[in-house]
Amino acid sequence: MSAASRDTAATDDDATLSAGWSYIRKRQMFLAAMATPALIYVLAVAVGPMVQGFLYSFENYNLIRPASHHFVGLDNYFALWRDPTARRTVVNTFAFTFGAVTLEFVLGLCVALLLWRDDWFNRIALGLLLIPATVTPLVVGLVFKALLSPEYGMLGYPLAELGLSSPRGLLADPQLALATLVAIDAWEWTPLMALILIAGLKTVPTDILEAAAVDGANGAQRFRLMVLPLLLPAAFLALILRMMDAFRVFDIVFVTTSGGPADATNTLMVYGVKQGLEFFNIGAASAVSTVIVICILAMAAAFIAVLKPGRNRHA
Predict the structure, then answer these.
(1) Each residue of 37-47: pLDDT tens digit?
(2) What is the rounded distance in angstroms from the CA atom of residue 249 to the CA atom of residue 265?
């Protein structure tokens, strides 16, 4: 090849490379322009109020006396610690979260294993099972409040007549109210947990399981040594999503028990809403919301610390 030909080829390559980089840059700018409105919306609706609430948590700010708010440091957080009702809400929130998420994971895993096979019956069954997850928690709470009523409820009246619940019903029993709310939450969100776990099971290579069966591994061994490790990413996603949502539970608690009886079902979210909308204590309500965010971040970090070593080991 002559020198002129080599120069011409190099020039063509440079032009092609420049055009390629230009296209990539234009594509990046287009994607950034498409994502900018969503980013602005998230910053304005979520991040902005969260930062403002964090700043309010260090102030004595009451809407009854809006002009008298002033900086008080950590007094709102210390007041939460000294308040026995607030401490009870923390215990209730953690108990509800771990009880509901654990129950939903166990039931969801059982449902996922039953519906693992991809046939028409399982697809129809999964579609029907997802109906509870499409109902808003507010409606679910109202429906179960009526069903569990000891006067006229289809579930509450027979239970009260048979002596299986107190005359006031399950939701009015301080010993059973929180467990009842856990069961209601599990009824609604177990299908979502099952859906995520089914998606994880679909990624498990069937040829590996068949090879293990040929080598003599029984069903329990294949599930424990092969399916569970490969299911960890989907399980991690399901647990994180449900944990974050369950820790912020408000709707079903508010419409069924309003935190009662005797604060047995009072959660951090309900307590914070009462502080802000009933007592107009914005500083205390902001402190509660900050505590909720910190607790969710801590639990998410704990999930990552526990599951990440296992994921790396089986990678």
Answers:
(1) 888 888 888 78
(2) 11
75-313, what's its fold?
MetI-like fold (1.10.3720)
Instruction: Parse the chain into domains and list their residue ranges.
Output: 3-56, 75-313
Residue among 261, 215, 279 at smallest CA distance from 76: 279
The string of DSSP codes covering 60-81 is EEETTEEEEEEE-TTHHHHHHH
What gap in Å lies between CA 27 and CA 256, rounded to an integer?
Answer: 51
**In which band, very low, low, confident or very high, does the pLDDT at 255 lie, cut at 50, 70 and 90?**
very high
- Check if the beta carbon of residue 169 is closer than 8 Å to that of residue 148: yes
Cα separation, 184 vs 176, in Å, equals: 12
Q: Cis omega before residue 84 (within 30°)?
A: no
For residue 65, report the phi and psi dihedrals to the nearest 5 degrees.
Answer: -125, 70
Q: How far is CA 237 from CA 21, 98, 244, in A?
A: 36, 16, 11
pLDDT tens digits for 151-168?
A: 989 999 999 888 888 888
pLDDT digits 0-9 by tens, 28-67:
888 888 888 888 888 888 788 888 889 999 999 888 888 7
Please indicate, yes or no, whether the overall pTM of this predicted structure exceeds 0.85: no
Burial class (CB in 10 A: 0-12, 13-18, 19+), 275: buried
Residue 24, pLDDT score = 81
**Using CA atoms in the order 268, 269, 270, 275, what is the torsion angle rounded to 10 degrees?**
90
Distances (CA, A) of 156 to 100, 139, 169, 178, 183: 21, 18, 6, 16, 14
Average pLDDT estimate for 200-219:
79
